[in-house]
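Q: Could you write out the predicted structure for this multi-component system? I'm mainly interested in how the pieces pack against one another.
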Amino acid sequence: MSNGLIGVAVIDILLFLFLVLTAIAITRLRNLFAVVMLAGVFSLLSAALFVTLDAMDVAFTEAAVGAGISTVLLLGTLALTVRDEKPVTHSAFLPLLICTIAGATLIYGTLDMPPFGAADNPVQTHVAPDYLERTPVEIGIPNTVAAVLASYRGFDTLGEVVVVFTAAIAVLLLLGGGGRSRRHDDVSDERKKD
Amino acid sequence: MEEIVFDFGFVLTHYNYWMFVVLMMTGLYITVSRGNLVKKVVGLNIFQTAVFLLYVSMGKIVGGTAPILTGEPGTVYSNPLPHVLILTAIVVGIATTALALALVVRIRETYDTIEEDEIIALELAMDTTAKASAAGSER
């Protein structure tokens, strides 16, 4: 048990160090193209961390959506806006203070958490064994995650589809409206008058 | 002073949660301290990924395997339920990211900048001009 835990810990901490380095580089870089590329790297590294945590389905969704679609969307935004961030003018003291206090509070909160990886944690003892036992009988597929997603909690997935649909409509209304270019001209005309 | 000893076992079973708190706070720092709107969105994505990692790590069983049934008796599987929740959260996350980026594009079209400070300055200037013209028309 302990040896297995240390084995997991070594890979975990290595991947985590890479993640933190990427996040710090994102904080410091001012070239937004580099920031977007590093955000893709961040997603890919977190997908690797998901694999070590036994979440295969989450890992390949994160790799496809986080490192793929999200990077494409960010690059599209850069093409329509600017490529460089302006230098930060105000001091970083207050944000740093807020993050330190919030982080310390959260770490204090985790002290009561059940030990990582133990089989008798509360989260493992209620519905999870039930799903694992009943999936082959009731649904008949080996992948429990897919069975829960599409069958047992199908309404959750329906809600998710509604959210994605709403977001798609909102994006289309914001960007694809026929009046968009005209309104833009109005604004620049006003500016010229000023 | 003997009670305060370095409990290696406790650290080994809780370091996971602390890692994600550090990542989450890095994301929060980027979101709060940087004025560039695209960078704020990237910071939010980092924050979000840290929450996902926290959830998935709670379902992990050491020595277990992914919850894909092999049919062999005695296999230990990790908890599939957090994985399902996070799958949904990732897809909802990309939808909100897309919406945020669309708003950034529109803000750039209207204000010609995506820096928070400049947008606030422009809005203040607009307010003063509007008030001045209103006062002028009253006279």
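A: Regarding packing and overall arrangement: Residues 80-111 of chain B form the longest helix (32 residues).
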